[in-house]
Write a structure and sequence with these properties.
Layout (H helix, E strand, L loop, with lengths): L10 H12 L3 H10 L3 E4 L6 E7 L5 E8 L5 E11 L4 E6 L3 E3 L3 H17 L7 E3 L3 H7 L2 H5 L12
Antiparallel strand pairs: 1-2, 2-3, 3-4, 4-5, 4-6, 5-7
Length: 159
C-alpha cells in the first residue's frame, strides 16, 4: 500500500486544496529556503506540509515544517534527528509548535524563530529516542551506505 494519499481517487482534489492553502505563502517559503540554504520538500508522504530540510550543525538531519492545521492555520515546527547505525536508534528533538495565520508577514518570523531554535539544539537533550530500526536498516544499507544518506544536505545559513 502506498505511504500517503496519492492512491486515493480524490487525490487531485486533496492536492488542489493543499495548493490553495500554500498559495499566499508560497513566495515567502521559497525565498526563505533559498536565503537560508534549505532544501524545500513539498507534501512528503502526501501530507499538507512543506519541509525545509538541512544538515544539523551537530550532525544528523533537521527540518522546519510548515503545515496546514485542521483549522486552516499554519503550524510551524522543527525537528532534529540523529540516527546511530551501531545502536539502531533514532534520537529526536522537537521544537514547540507555532500556530499562526498563513500570511507572509506572520509566517516568515515564525520560520526564522523555529530555524534558530532547531539549529541551537544540543546533542543529548533529546525529546525521544526511538529503537527498533535494526531489521530495516541492516536489510537496506551497510553502515557505510547509511552514513552517506545525509551527505548532500545543505548547511543552514542564519546570516
Amino acid at each position: 500500500m502506498p505511504n500517503g494519499l496519492s492512491h486515493d481517487p480524490q487525490w487531485n482534489d486533496i492536492l488542489a486544496g493543499y495548493e490553495v492553502f500554500f498559495a499566499p505563502i508560497n513566495t515567502v517559503l521559497t525565498a526563505f529556503a533559498a536565503d537560508h540554504n534549505l532544501l524545500l520538500e513539498k507534501y512528503y508522504h502526501d501530507a499538507p506540509c512543506w519541509s525545509l530540510r538541512f544538515a544539523h550543525p551537530s550532525s544528523g538531519e533537521a527540518k522546519v515544517d510548515i503545515c496546514r492545521g485542521e483549522d486552516s492555520k499554519a503550524k510551524v515546527s522543527g525537528v532534529w534527528w540523529y540516527d546511530d547505525y551501531d545502536t539502531f536508534t533514532r534520537s529526536l528533538r522537537y521544537s514547540d509548535e507555532i500556530r499562526c495565520e498563513p500570511i507572509p508577514e506572520i509566517v516568515q518570523p515564525a520560520l526564522l524563530e523555529t530555524l534558530k531554535v532547531v539549529v541551537a539544539f544540543e546533542r543529548g537533550k533529546w525529546s525521544q529516542v526511538a529503537t527498533g530500526y535494526r531489521d530495516i536498516w541492516k536489510k537496506t544499507w551497510t553502515k557505510s551506505q547509511f552514513e552517506k544518506l545525509t551527505e548532500g544536505l545543505p548547511k543552514p545559513k542564519l546570516d
